[in-house]
Amino acid sequence: MKKQGALEVYLLILGWEHLPKSWSIYGTDPNIKLIEPVPAVLVKLHGGWVLLDTGFNPSLIKDSALYKRFHGRFKGIEAILPPGESDPLLVELEKHNLKVDDIGIVALSHLHNDHVGGLRHFVNHSTIYIQKEELDYGFSSHPIPENNGIFRIDFDDPLYNWQLLQGETEIAPGITAIPTPGHTPGHQSFEISFDDSVGGGGMIFAFDAADLTENVVHELPIGGTINCDPQDTIEQIKLLKIRSKEKGYSLIPGHDPIILPQIQVDLLRKFK
Ligand SMILES: [Zn+2]
User: pLDDT value at position 180?
Assistant: First the structure.
């Protein structure tokens, strides 16, 4: 029997972060700064649409008091929204003729504010997949997670329909969640297998297990970690590389300013 997979895959860019490169490559001169894109991935399966990650919560950036309360405490990292007043996630979904109600499944790589800020759109109608360890950490020991860039306001609505994962799980035919802890305690990456009808093959989205192409190619540790020695993050990068090689899938870093816009274009060419 043929295995079902993704019919369409798109990369959304929901904002940018101006930050020291040392957040992405451990040990880099902190005076070197990058503008890194904030991605999400939109996937069409036989059963409907899935969204991987959700970008920033724009209100926490646009409202000066909320900005001060949240982002303003992270000196050296600037959150940047696309121009215009509209919510970037809604704008990007609209480009694909979609509304938030069309998204049946949301899966989160981790709880950082640049990945989970759009979750509020999916209260009470989408199923939200996350590693249990990540959500447990997010709700633990306030304000320690907040000091690590995890804003509880983004995910504490009691009406979220959580599905808690413990380990590697195929969350839907064609999408597998792969635990890659280190950047955060319950971080996960995602493997997407394309449907045979679009030629098979697939991609692995590392998300923040490997921010940049340099992390992947040169097996360099990431700089931002929680309860993990940066050097230990190389292990997850190596495992993802082995997996991508074995399957013949491309391995996509989570915040690379050069490769992500290229992949966005490549996917539009392939699927539109
Ligand atoms: Zn992160």
Answer: 98
Residue 254 CA, ligand 1 centroid: distance in Å: 9
CA of 14 to the centre of ligand 1 (A): 14
Antiparallel, parallel or unpaired: β 127-131 and 8-20 = unpaired
With contact defined as beta carbons under 8 Å apart, do 138 and 97 qualify?
Answer: no
- Measured in angstroms, how far is the CA atom of residue 186 from the centroid of ligand 1? 11
Q: What are the two backbone dihedrals, phi and then psi, of residue 150, each rounded to the nearest 5 degrees?
A: -110, 110
Structure-block tokens of residue 123: 């209260």
pLDDT digits 0-9 by tens, 216-263: 999 999 999 999 999 999 999 999 999 999 999 999 999 999 999 999
* Cα-to-centroid distance, 183 and ligand 1 (Å): 7
Q: Please, are residues 194 and 201 in contact by the beta-carbon 8 Å criterion?
A: yes
In terms of Cα–Cα distance, which of 217, 213, 215 is closest to 256?
A: 213
State which residues of the chain have pLDDT below 50.
none
Q: In whole angstroms, what is the distance from residue 205 CA to residue 178 CA?
A: 10
Domain 8-271 class? Answer: alpha beta
> What pLDDT sits at residue 225?
94
**Centre of ligand 1 from the C-alpha of residue 199, in Å:** 32
